[in-house]
Amino acid sequence: MTAEAPAPTQTSPGSPILSAEEVTKEFGGLVAVNRVSVDVPLGSIVSIIGPNGAGKTTFFNMLTGLYKSTSGRIVFSGRDITHDRPDVITKLGVARTFQNIRLFGAMTALENVIVGRHCRMRAGLFGSIVRAPWVRAEERAVQERAAETLSYVGLRSRQFGQLSSNLSYGDQRRVEIARALASDPKLLLLDEPTAGMNPHESAALTDFMRKLRNDLQLTILLIEHDMKVVMGVSERITVLDHGEKIAEGSPGEVREDQRVIEAYLGKQS
Amino acid sequence: MNELRAQLHEWRVAIERTLPPWWPRALAVLLIAFGLLLPQIFSTTSNFVNTEILALTYVMFALGLNVVVGFAGLLDLGYVAFFALGSYAFGWLGSGWFFKAHVHVLVHGPTGTLPGIHLNFVLILICAGIFTAFAGAIIGVPTLRLRGDYIAIVTLAFGEIIRVFALQGPSLKIFGMPVTGGELGISGTDPPYLPGVGQFSQLDIRPWYYTIFVLVLITLFVTIRVRDSRLGRAWIALREDEVAAVSMGIPLVRTKLLAYALGAAFGGIAGAFLGAYTTLIDAGEFQFGFSIFVLAMVILGGLGSVWGVVVGALLLSNINYYLIPDVLNPIPGDLGLNFNLTDLQVSIFGFLLVLVMVLRPQGLIPERRRKLELTRGIGETELDEPAASWVSVEPGEVVQ
Questions:
Q1: Which residues of B, range 55-84, sit inside 8 Å of A by Cβ?
Q2: Are residues A158 and A263 in the same domain?
Q3: Within an 8 Å CB–CB cutoff, is residue B384 touching chain A?
């Protein structure tokens, strides 16, 4: 963040590290995300919820540069990233996981995490061919760090060398988080991290998210369906429905919101 | 069939157990030593050493294509373009073709007085590499947004464009000089001269052999180093999952173009060497079949596997240029049949390919990753991927 004192705001504990302003995404005639604004305060855990097809993942894809927004502006850490490429955004400090795990199946768990470190490494074509001392040192350091990160997310060391496609579902989720952490993100985007987990595992992941935030001074934005997780971990919640933001606020506020209840349960007639 | 396979596997495991852990290294050293001694052992007047020169050139082509197809997973069917451009780079910079020019750089002997552009052989190889690397990157640009089969179509078209350009070259003029020799070719290329070796000639082909041998060693070195680097990992990541790779901070354009450029550079240098060796740069050579031939070597050896590709290239070119035309050719005649084996060359070739693909689809020496994928990956841990609708929320929970 900038050196100047953050502008005091009443509603949030910190100034926003990420703010999406009236972001819109249209696919042909379909408006997937319609003028959605979200502020993510620095150091907070914010959730985006909404029924299936509400545009949550589309919104994530715009934040990470995979989709170009049709209109609107996305500012991260004081920089307009609306038109930046995904790899540039990652380098600025945004990392993500995917709803359906997207690990590099033919690579080991360790290699996956090393790839996550790509944008912080310097070795290029000629550096790799010559393999200068600094390249070797970089390679060694990254390997050690990747192993540490894997241990941090709870993988056992004998699994480091296994092909990621051979790991269990839960472990793949861990590796994916480790891969995202490897790029030293300031903001971590988690797309349904507890999908496919039992309540026990979900609870463990909830604790882990808090630990992450506290240990690494991360800001976390997550898409989540599991209300127990959402209500338990988030400081703020944004609710999307049919591509529009229908509610925003603390878990308590969102829980009481009439439009949210309607979106999830249908309108009472 | 399965019993046989199991038996073979058992033997292999047994053999692997008895061998010391350094055996691959020892084998590599032995092979290199054999490669160095080969032209001393075999008569250079026979066709065998000549074949090996061609075979090594193909090893270099195949290693280059392997970077693009094997490492980065970009199916390139227009690899002949780089053979052509490399050859022309040699023709343009090492002959009297551009007869109005008088450029001489570090050349030796009578070549220094001839009209045309005459560069030192090593310089030409470097120029050819740089030139084709740029061409590779340019050809790569329109494929960046494409995947799989579509890349194949675009690159195939580029290969054809270059071929047609080569054929039509005589009517294209720069400063009143034709660009290519078309089917008549560019002839009268400079014989390479290296200090300590002297002028290369067709009478003693050993210097040619050692030159391509060294070029192949350099290619191997570079390929292996790059494969095990940050860049090599980025290629594999892109090959595995492009969306995840760019989200992890891998710049798509630069990484893909580097793969095209590096692969093209090897192809261009090998092409320049082949142009020098055959002393004729003839547009008729740059056929689509060449791309397929090299691709077959890569796939037969094992996509992405450096040593597999070397074996695949050596094997196929030896079968194609030596075994069938020189060794086995008279057999049908001896059996009283009225044809030569060369008539069946393409069929034999196709049959061999089909055979290998059926028996060993992963290639002769599969890449470590693919080997793991094909063997260990199956059945061990079936992923219980949750259905997309598997959502643990009861809508009512929001209200509570």
A1: none
A2: no
A3: yes
Question: Domain total for chain A?
Answer: 2
Q: Using CA atoms, how far apart are residues B228 and A262, in angstroms rounded to an integer?
A: 55
Residue ranges in chain B whose pLDDT is less than 50: 375-400
**Coil, strand or helix at B178:** strand
B277: left (phi over 0), alpha (psi -120 to 50) or beta: alpha
B378 interfacial to chain A (CB closer than 8 Å) = no
Amino acid B215: pLDDT: 96
Find chain A residues with C-beta within 8 A of B304's C-beta.
Answer: none
Model pLDDT, residue A183: 93
Phi first, then psi, for residue B200 (nearest 5°) are -75, 150
Q: Cβ–Cβ of A166/B380 closer than 8 Å?
A: yes
Residue-level pLDDT at B380: 39
Q: Which of A183, A201, A233 is the last residue of a domain?
A: A183
User: Which parts of chain A have pLDDT scores under 70?
Assistant: 1-14, 267-269
Neighboring chain B residues of A227 at a CB cutoff of 8 Å? 393-394, 397-398
Residue B308 lies inside a defined structural domain of this protein? no
Same domain, A264 and A191: yes
- Same domain? A173 vs A68: no
Instruction: Spell out which residues of chain A touch residue B244, defining contact as CB-CB under 8 Å.
Output: 98, 102-104
Instruction: For residue A39, give its domain range.
Output: 13-93+185-269
* Chain A residues closer than 8 Å to B389 by CB: 52
Chain A residues whose beta carbon lies within 8 Å of the beta carbon of residue B371 = none
According to the model, what pLDDT value does residue B1 have?
Answer: 65
Angle between helix axes B288-301 and B80-93 (nearest 10 degrees) is: 120
Domain around B104: 47-286
Please indicate, yes or no, whether residues A268 and A146 belong to a single structural domain of this protein: no
**pTM here?**
0.87
Question: Per residue in A138-189, pLDDT tens?
Answer: 999 999 999 999 999 999 989 999 999 889 888 999 999 999 999 999 999 9
Work out the minimum CA distance from A35 to partner chain B, whole angstroms: 24
The helix-helix angle for A109-116 and A169-181 (nearest 10°) equals 30
Nearest to B226 by CA among B392, B63, B337, B398: B63
Picking from A183, A198, A213, the residue at the C-terminal end of a domain is: A183
pLDDT at site B374: 52
DSSP string over B355-381: HHHHH-TT-SS--HHHHHHHTTTSSSS
- Is B2 touching A (CB cutoff 8 A)? no
pLDDT given for residue A147 in this prediction: 95
Instruction: Give the closest of A128, A180, A261 to B225, CB-based.
Output: A128
Q: Flag whether residue B250 sits within 8 Å of chain A, measured between CB atoms.
A: yes
Q: Report yes or no on B328 lying in a domain.
A: no
Closest CB to A118 among B250, B373, B386 = B250
Contact A87 B251 (CB under 8 A): yes
- Is residue A189 located within the same domain as residue A83? yes
From the CA of B153, how many Å to the nearest CA of chain A? 26
- Look up the ipTM and state it: 0.89
Is the same domain home to A218 and A166? Answer: no
Domain membership flag for residue A170? yes
Report the Cα A240 to chain-centroid distance in Å.
17
Task: Answer yes or no: do B233 and A121 touch at CB < 8 A.
Answer: no
- Tell me which amino acid residue B352 is: L
Same domain, A267 and A189: yes
Co-location of A189 and A261 in the same domain: yes
- Subunit contact B250:A196, Cβ cutoff 8 A: no
Q: Please check whether residue B356 lies inside any domain of the structure.
A: no
